[in-house]
Each structure stands twice: as structure tokens, then as C-alpha cells.
């Protein structure tokens, strides 16, 4: 009898369970460590937002007491609820990283899930990093296998793919074998979902939190002996068929451990706290304005020629609140011109009411032109060609395929540290933030991460 081919879930589980510390190249570990640093930084800042506080309150009410710490609180809960609360905080400001293998905010879901489980079981820092690697590579393999089609169909891939990455990271930390890990992935994938209709509302970070919770819960269910579908990707009424019109590229799963997606396509770390779709255009405008000494009052019009996905994501031309501003190309560009750089403090009602900002917003527009054929969209998925028309008749033009902070143009360690400290400053003292950054920088030397985050005791 001919042996059937392994399913995508079987391949992911077999690879994740077989991964040994020596299998992970040093550059991959470094990226995973940076994902941990960046995610905890933006989660600390996000923990002070209303949506994070509200979610934390609900989860504290319904969750069991445990060993996993809630950012922004002295409380410790069981891993699923702690993962949900911290992932909500990690995505609350839309300042977390992105990967184009799935077009997904992977770390905002995977890191809180892995940390919650690691604290619950008393895992080492090295084990935490390995779990983040395993969860990330599995999720990004699934994202690559679904191609850009999944995102372009209107699914919010962070919520859709996130439970898979979280379940794999949790399964590894719980010590599940391949059979149980297969079940965890199957449970996570069979129940997943998330629509881009959430953009601009509290539902978006909450869905990131629910994805982390779902992945951890799936691993716990599998540990208890609950089974899951092994063919949840390939089944006619499974993931690829129902979510992606049957589109799937199975080679993405065959290359696990040979193609490290933490390196290629890599991780894009946000330099400014707005949707990544605006960043390339912002960088072009900033470079043109600085090079040519352009003042905001000189600008007649700014035209951004961008791929269709950018227009689909940035739906607010005249934003009315912080969340809408984060999905507004006019806001991102106008705030950059007025303030030099968009910072967390600019996501504020007073800034949105600024008359100078109000005058600039209508002068900024987006369109998608003929340049954005399939090859161009693949080469520059959120790129931008920008034209500035000035009152003196000058016409300035520029193009960027990727923004600063993208995997192709990464932030330096110093810039990443500065971002972390700036984010942490909103909820803790400089000394406590610096201490946490030091611990994160040597995370793989820590024997136990249970007390990695003693921030509430230090404030």
C-alpha cells in the first residue's frame, strides 16, 4: 500500500518537535531575540491604552490565577488569559513588527503566547527563544503557502494565522510530542478567523489577543488528549479551500528548517506607530522634504502611487480618532511634515484637532497606477512612488520599495533599544526599563523567565 504524503500540519509538527538548539543558526536566534525585545517594548506602551486596560480587566475577571504576568498589572493569570491580555497590549498601538510571509503581525501573537507558557512552566530564556523560532517559522510557512491571496481576499491574517504560531510555540514549551503537536495545530487552525473589517476599531488588537489565547488553549487541549484534524489545510472544506479559494503552495512546508523565514523575507520592525502600509511613502516624503528644505506651507499636493493593498488598508483620509489616524496615509505624512517624526504622543485628539494638520490632510492623496503589476507588487508589496507639487512650481519625486526598519533596511541595535526605552517610559521608570532591556539582551543566559518582568515592583 502506497504511503500517503504528509499533510501540512504533520510537516509543521514533525519539524517543530524535531528542532534542536543546535539547529537554529545564530542569525535566526538574533532576529528572534529582537522580536522579543520589540514586542515587549510596544506591549508595555500598549498596556496603558484603554483597550488593553479593558481587555485586561475582563480577562482578570474570567481567568484563573496562574504564573504568567499581565503587563501593566501586578496580577498573574493562567497562560491562555495572560497571553490574550499581553497580545492585545502588543497590538494596541499598531507599533509591532510584520512579516510578508503571510503579511502578518506574527510576533504580537507568538511572543505573548510563548512568554505566558514559559512563565507558567518555569522555562529558560533559551527555551523561550527556541519556542518563538518554532512558532514563527511554522506560522510563516503557512503564510507563505497561502501566498498573498489570503490577505488580498480580505482576511486579517494576524488573527487567522496567529493561532497556529501560538499553538506551536506553546506545544514546544509544554513538551508535547509530534502527535499532540499535530492535534494542537489542527485544533487551532480549524477554529481560526479574522476579518479586516476590524481595522480602525478595538476589535483589531482584541483579535490579536484572542489568537494568542486560542493557540495556547489548543496546546493545552492537545496535552489533555483532545484530537484535531490532520488535514485542516488540505481538506476540501478545510483552511485553503474555505479561506483561500483552494490556493496553496505545499513547497512552503517542505522547506522548514532550510528556509528560515525569520531571515527571508525577514521581519519588518516599525519605526513609527502607524500601519506599515504608510511607511514607505512617509520615508519618501521625509527624504524629499529634508533634501530640498520643503516647509509644509509650500505644499500644494502630495500624490502617492501605491499598490492596491495600501489603499485597502489605509481607509481614513480624514481620521477622527487615534485608531483611524493609524490607518490614514494623509495623517502619517502630514504629521511627519509638521513634527519631524510620528511619535506615540502624536496619536492624540489634540493633535488631530491641530489646524495646521487639518490644512495638510486634504492635500495628500493615494492612487494605484499601472506600475503596480504582479511583479512590482511582489518586489515592493507596500512600496510607494510619491510626487510633491510645490507653490513655486517645483515637482519633486521619489520611490521606496521598503521603508526604514524593514528587513531590507533594518533598524540598528541602538535604534531598536531607543524604541524599546521610549515605549517602556510610558509605564515604568528609566531604571526599570533599562534593567529589562539588559535582561532581554542576554535572554538565552537566563535559567528561568518567571520573573523576567518585575516592572510593577520597580515603579
Order of helices and strands: HHHEEHHHHHHHHHHHEHHHHHEHEEHHH
Query: Strand fraction band?
Result: 5-15%
| Name of the level-1 CATH class of the largest domain | Mainly Alpha
Please tell me the CATH architecture of the largest domain by its name. Answer: Orthogonal Bundle
Radius of gyration: 22 Å
Calculate the mean pLDDT score and round it. 95
Main beta-sheet strand count, sense and barrel state: 4 strands, mixed
Oligomer: single chain
Poorly predicted tracts of residues = none
Strand order of the largest sheet: 4-3-5-6
Helix amount, in percent?
40-55%
* CATH evolutionary superfamily of the largest domain: 2-methylcitrate dehydratase PrpD
Family: Belongs to the PrpD family.
Pfam family, one: MmgE_PrpD_N
GO molecular function: lyase activity
Organism: Starkeya nomas
Describe this structure in words.
- By secondary structure, this protein is α+β, with helices and mostly antiparallel strands.
- It has 2 domains: 8-266, 2-methylcitrate dehydratase PrpD (Orthogonal Bundle), CATH 1.10.4100; 276-400, 60s Ribosomal Protein L30, Chain: A, CATH 3.30.1330.120.
- The protein is built from 23 helices and 6 strands.
- A hairpin with a 4-residue loop joins strand 5 and strand 6.
- Helix 9 runs antiparallel to helix 10.
- The N and C termini lie far apart (65 Å).
- The mean pLDDT is 95.
Amino acid at each position: 500500500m502506497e504511503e500517503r504524503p504528509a499533510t501540512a500540519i504533520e510537516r509543521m509538527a514533525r519539524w517543530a518537535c524535531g528542532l534542536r538548539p543546535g539547529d537554529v543558526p545564530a542569525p535566526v536566534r538574533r532576529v528572534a531575540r529582537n522580536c522579543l525585545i520589540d514586542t515587549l517594548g510596544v506591549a508595555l506602551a500598549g498596556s496603558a491604552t484603554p483597550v488593553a486596560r479593558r481587555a485586561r480587566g475582563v480577562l482578570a475577571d474570567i481567568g484563573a490565577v496562574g504564573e504568567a504576568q499581565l503587563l501593566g498589572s501586578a496580577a498573574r493569570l493562567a497562560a491562555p488569559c495572560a497571553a490574550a491580555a499581553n497580545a492585545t497590549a502588543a497590538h494596541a498601538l499598531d507599533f509591532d513588527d510584520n512579516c510578508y510571509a503571510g503579511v502578518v503581525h506574527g510576533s504580537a501573537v507568538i511572543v505573548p503566547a510563548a512568554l505566558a507558557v514559559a512563565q507558567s512552566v518555569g522555562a529558560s530564556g533559551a527555551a523561550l527563544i527556541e519556542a518563538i523560532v518554532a512558532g514563527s517559522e511554522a506560522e510563516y510557512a503557512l503564510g507563505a503557502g497561502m501566498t498573498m491571496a489570503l490577505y488580498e481576499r480580505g482576511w486579517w491574517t494576524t488573527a487567522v494565522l496567529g493561532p497556529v504560531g501560538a499553538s506551536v510555540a506553546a506545544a514546544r514549551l509544554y513538551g508535547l510530542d509530534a502527535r499532540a503537536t499535530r492535534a494542537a495545530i489542527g485544533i487551532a487552525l480549524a477554529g481560526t478567523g479574522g476579518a479586516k473589517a476590524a481595522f480602525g476599531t478595538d476589535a483589531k488588537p482584541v483579535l490579536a489577543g484572542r489568537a494568542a489565547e486560542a493557540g495556547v488553549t489548543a496546546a493545552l487541549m492537545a496535552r489533555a488528549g483532545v484530537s484535531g484534524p490532520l488535514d485542516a489545510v488540505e481538506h476540501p472544506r478545510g483552511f485553503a479551500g474555505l479561506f483561500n479559494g483552494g490556493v496553496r503552495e505545499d513547497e512552503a512546508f517542505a522547506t522548514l528548517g532550510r528556509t528560515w523565514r525569520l531571515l527571508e523575507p525577514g521581519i519588518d520592525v516599525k519605526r513609527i506607530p502607524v500601519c506599515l502600509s504608510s511607511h514607505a511613502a512617509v520615508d519618501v516624503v521625509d527624504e524629499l522634504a529634508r533634501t530640498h528644505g520643503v516647509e509644509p506651507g509650500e505644499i500644494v499636493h502630495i500624490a502617492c502611487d501605491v499598490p492596491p493593498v495600501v489603499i485597502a488598508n489605509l481607509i481614513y483620509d480624514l481620521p477622527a480618532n487615534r485608531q483611524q489616524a493609524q490607518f490614514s496615509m494623509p495623517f502619517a505624512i502630514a504629521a511627519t511634515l509638521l513634527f519631524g517624526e510620528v511619535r506615540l504622543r502624536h496619536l492624540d485628539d489634540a493633535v488631530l484637532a491641530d489646524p495646521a494638520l487639518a490644512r495638510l490632510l486634504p492635500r495628500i492623496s493615494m492612487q494605484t497606477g499601472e506600475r503596480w503589476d504582479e511583479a512590482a507588487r511582489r518586489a515592493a508589496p507596500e512600496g510607494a512612488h510619491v510626487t510633491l507639487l510645490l507653490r513655486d512650481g517645483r515637482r519633486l519625486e521619489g520611490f521606496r520599495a521598503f521603508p526604514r526598519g524593514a528587513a531590507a533596511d533594518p533598524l540598528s541595535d541602538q535604534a531598536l533599544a531607543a524604541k524599546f526605552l521610549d515605549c517602556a517610559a510610558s509605564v515604568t521608570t528609566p531604571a526599570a526599563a533599562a534593567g529589562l532591556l539588559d535582561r532581554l539582551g542576554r535572554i538565552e543566559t537566563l535559567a528561568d523567565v518567571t520573573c523576567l518582568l518585575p516592572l510593577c515592583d520597580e515603579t
